[in-house]
């Protein structure tokens, strides 16, 4: 179900638009808000990924990227609603009106911690102290020419997942109440 | 080459926390991971203790990320850190075993295990770090987890207690951050060894000394709040009563000691470098510490005598007992260079004061966590810890009663338990200071003696009201006959009290809890009989704490420092 054919623009007096199979976000938000969110969310996500990728030696990093990503989710939650995000974007079953996505956010949080801790432990296996990082310079690549691969990115990625998972779990839990 | 054994306690605690999150879907796997993590933590701390203390006291630096000091974060394991870690490992292991049966199934799955181990990671990091800002970070790791654990039951009074606790600690964290920022601006470094080096020779590094005294006293206030010393004690009773028993055991036994450790590390190791310290910092901070300690002893003692439930009594007693821990620090600062013969060597009074504080802290950690856990078992069996509703439990639960008695006696300081030697060293510090003509040492001694009498009063009162005499109405209803869960293989006839029904699972859970209590009680007796071990370790730790020179030279030892180019290998 796309939700676009639920009588856009007509203010029906349905009791509670949140419940039931109808997604009903048309009744709560304006066309302007929806359009702006449609345009900005991809930009926000792209910026978040850019910040994540350059974070190990330029302004940015896992944390700020994750906060931006969570902002994108918040915009979708506020403007399109929980049901739309779960059924249309994440493909979850929302039949019984539970906030199933929160369980996935929790796992994201756990996975992030695992990645971050593991990235710190790897250097121990090579006889270096905890969290030691390495950098590899790749030369002569097509298109890029020169690229820097830093092991710190693995830690940043862990931080990213942890913060996205953590923030969304909090938002999801509080939002459901 | 850096030895990973230094960082191992932090890593084991962190890994356990993460693994208990991963095994969240299976309650048994999660519990097993958590307990195994506690055992592993104990094991790595034992290895570290052996490395740093037993095989010749050494200071082992660890350069995280392979960055040389003072640019990167340095962890430093010396005898003081190892002593505190040992204390944390014993109490942590007992609490994690106890908690795996005490906290209800839902609570365990929800968040109990990860939070508990994150708290242990924070504690270990605080004990090991050699970097002032990193100390702040580990404090926060520890506090974040403890916030949720204090709020664990989420009732009305729990929320109120947690709100107090959170707001106060956030304020303290803000103050700590300001103080650290100020110290960085003044001394130009965050590395503790580097700071000690600069403060010892301010002219060579262009350090302005005057502001550091004020910033140091800001830090003192923060650490006093963490330790729960009067006048920063007011969050203690409510928070300790709100948290689940195993968490309270760790809060009172270990987390409080992080504040004490920070005072020792910063004031005796970092701010005490060189001639400057003894004339300014010690002379200024010593009397304040002694005054706060004396006030704690009196306030906690009197408060505990007046409580009408076991939890409240123990919480107030914690305030008083921390006074006993801090008192020798203050007295030791008053005449730091006085020479005394102690633990087979000529040592300074400052070292004796630190050793007394450490032995007392060890005793308090064992005894108070035992008593809080016993109080938790009373909650689980009888459903209340109010003194007027309990009575005669000695006949019903003799093992709990015996453990409680041993814990109480150790708190009072009856030989041959550890508590006796702790009190003895505290008194010894005061009498040596008095003999050396330190003004006010006599008052400190008198306050300590008065506090000891108060301790006898409230421990006796608790024991009489809870375990002695005829069983009360409540006890007769919930425990009609003697509970024989332990040793009888869990087939005892017992009514599980609040847990509802004397099921096998409840019996097993109680058996585990009682076994933990007995094990802790045996520790108190064992360490009391073999007190040489504890006192020697404390003497080594005190030496490490007061030996600024050794600390600095170990951290900046060119043989262990990573290459100057830093992390990018």
From TrEMBL, chain A:
Q: Where is the Na+/H+ antiporter MnhB subunit-related protein domain?
A: 32-169
Q: Bias regions of kind Low complexity — which residues?
A: 1-12
Q: Where are the bilayer-spanning segments? A: 31-53, 60-84, 104-128, 149-171
Q: Where is this region: Disordered?
A: 1-22
Q: Which UniProt keywords apply?
A: Cell membrane, Membrane, Transmembrane, Transmembrane helix
Is Transmembrane helix tagged as a keyword? yes
The main place the protein resides is membrane
Q: Which domain of life is it from?
A: Archaea
| Localization annotation | Cell membrane
Classify the protein's membrane topology as the record does: Multi-pass membrane protein
Q: Name one GO cellular component term.
A: plasma membrane
- Pfam family for this entry, one: MnhB
In Swiss-Prot or TrEMBL terms, this protein is called Multisubunit na+/h+ antiporter, mnhb subunit
Q: Which organism is it from?
A: Candidatus Halobonum tyrrellensis G22
From TrEMBL, chain B:
NADH:quinone oxidoreductase/Mrp antiporter transmembrane domain: residues covered: 130-435
Q: Which InterPro entries is this protein grouped with?
A: CPA3_Na-H_Antiporter_D, NADH_UbQ_OxRdtase, ND/Mrp_TM
Q: Which domain of life is it from?
A: Archaea
GO biological processes? ATP synthesis coupled electron transport
UniProt keyword terms in alphabetical order: Cell membrane, Lyase, Membrane, Transmembrane, Transmembrane helix
Pfam families listed in its UniProt record: Proton_antipo_M
Q: What is its main location?
A: membrane
The protein's location, in the record's own words, is: Cell membrane
A GO term, aspect molecular function: lyase activity
Specify the protein's topology with respect to the membrane: Multi-pass membrane protein
Where are the membrane-spanning stretches?
6-25, 32-49, 69-98, 110-129, 135-153, 165-185, 205-225, 258-276, 282-302, 314-335, 341-362, 399-426, 438-459, 510-535
Q: Output a single Gene Ontology CC term carried by this record.
A: plasma membrane
From the Swiss-Prot or TrEMBL record, give the protein name: Formate hydrogenlyase subunit 3/multisubunit Na+/H+ antiporter, MnhD subunit
Organism field: Candidatus Halobonum tyrrellensis G22
């Amino acid at each position: 179900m796309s939700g676009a054919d639920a009588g856009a623009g007509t203010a029906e007096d349905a009791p509670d638009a949140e419940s039931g199979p109808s997604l009903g976000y048309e009744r709560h938000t304006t066309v302007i808000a929806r359009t702006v969110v449609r345009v900005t969310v991809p930009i926000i996500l792209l910026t978040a990924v850019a910040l994540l990728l350059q974070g190990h030696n330029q302004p940015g990093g896992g944390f700020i990227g994750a906060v931006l990503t969570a902002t994108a989710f918040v915009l979708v939650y506020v403007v399109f609603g929980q049901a739309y995000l779960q059924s249309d974007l994440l493909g979850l079953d929302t039949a019984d009106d539970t906030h199933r996505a929160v369980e996935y956010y929790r796992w994201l949080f756990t996975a992030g911690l695992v990645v971050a801790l593991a990235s710190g432990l790897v250097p121990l296996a090579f006889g270096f102290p905890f969290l030691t990082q390495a950098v590899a310079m790749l030369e002569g690549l097509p298109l890029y020419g020169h690229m820097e691969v830093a092991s710190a990115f693995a830690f940043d990625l862990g931080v990213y997942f942890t913060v996205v998972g953590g923030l969304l779990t909090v938002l999801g839990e509080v939002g459901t109440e | 080459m850096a030895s990973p054994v230094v960082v191992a306690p932090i890593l084991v605690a962190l890994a356990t926390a993460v693994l208990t999150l991963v095994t969240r879907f299976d309650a048994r796997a999660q519990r097993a991971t958590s307990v195994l993590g506690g055992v592993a933590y104990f094991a790595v701390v034992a290895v570290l203790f052996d490395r740093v203390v037993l095989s010749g006291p050494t200071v082992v630096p660890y350069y995280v990320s392979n960055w040389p000091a003072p640019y990167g974060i340095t962890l430093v394991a010396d005898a003081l850190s190892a002593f505190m870690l040992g204390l944390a490992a014993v109490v942590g292991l007992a609490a994690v075993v106890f908690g795996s049966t005490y906290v209800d199934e839902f609570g365990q799955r929800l968040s109990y295990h990860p939070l508990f181990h994150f708290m242990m990671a924070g504690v270990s990091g605080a004990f090991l770090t050699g970097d002032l800002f990193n100390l702040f970070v580990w404090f926060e790791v520890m506090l974040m987890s403890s916030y949720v654990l204090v709020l664990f039951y989420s009732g009305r009074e729990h929320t109120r207690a947690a709100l107090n606790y959170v707001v106060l600690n956030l304020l303290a964290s803000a103050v700590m951050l300001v103080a650290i920022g100020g110290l960085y601006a003044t001394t130009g470094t965050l590395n503790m060894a580097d700071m000690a080096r600069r403060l010892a020779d301010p002219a060579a590094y262009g350090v302005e000394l005057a502001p550091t005294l004020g910033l140091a006293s800001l830090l003192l206030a923060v650490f006093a709040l963490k330790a729960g010393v009067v006048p920063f004690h007011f969050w203690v009773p409510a928070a300790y009563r709100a948290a689940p028993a195993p968490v309270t055991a760790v809060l009172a036994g270990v987390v409080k000691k992080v504040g004490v450790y920070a005072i020792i590390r910063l004031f005796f190791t970092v701010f005490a470098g060189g001639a400057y310290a003894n004339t300014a910092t010690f002379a200024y901070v010593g009397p304040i510490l002694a005054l706060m300690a004396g006030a704690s002893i009196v306030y906690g003692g009197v408060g505990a005598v007046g409580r009408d439930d076991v939890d409240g009594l123990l919480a107030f007693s914690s305030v008083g007992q921390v006074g006993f821990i801090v008192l020798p620090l203050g007295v030791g600062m008053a005449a730091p260079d006085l020479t005394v013969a102690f633990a087979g060597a000529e040592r300074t009074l400052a070292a004796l004061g630190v050793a007394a504080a450490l032995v007392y802290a060890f005793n308090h950690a064992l005894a108070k966590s035992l008593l809080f856990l016993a109080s938790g078992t009373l909650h689980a069996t009888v459903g209340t810890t109010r003194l007027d509703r309990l009575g005669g439990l000695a006949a019903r639960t003799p093992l709990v009663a015996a453990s409680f008695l041993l814990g109480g006696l150790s708190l009072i300081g009856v030989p041959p338990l550890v508590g006796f030697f702790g009190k003895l060293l505290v008194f010894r510090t005061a009498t040596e200071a008095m003999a050396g003509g330190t003004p006010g040492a006599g008052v400190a001694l008198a306050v300590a003696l008065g506090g000891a009498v108060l301790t006898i009063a409230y421990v006796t009162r608790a024991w009489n009201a809870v375990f002695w005499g005829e069983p009360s109405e409540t006890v007769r209803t919930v425990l009609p006959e003697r509970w024989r869960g332990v040793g009888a293989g869990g087939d005892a006839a017992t009514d599980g009290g609040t847990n509802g029904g004397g099921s096998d699972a409840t019996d097993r859970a109680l058996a585990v809890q009682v076994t933990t209590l007995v094990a802790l009680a045996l520790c108190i007796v064992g360490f009391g009989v073999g007190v040489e071990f504890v006192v020697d370790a404390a003497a080594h730790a005190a030496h490490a704490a007061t030996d600024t020179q050794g600390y600095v030279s170990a951290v900046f030892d060119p043989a262990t420092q990573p290459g100057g180019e830093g992390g990018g290998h």
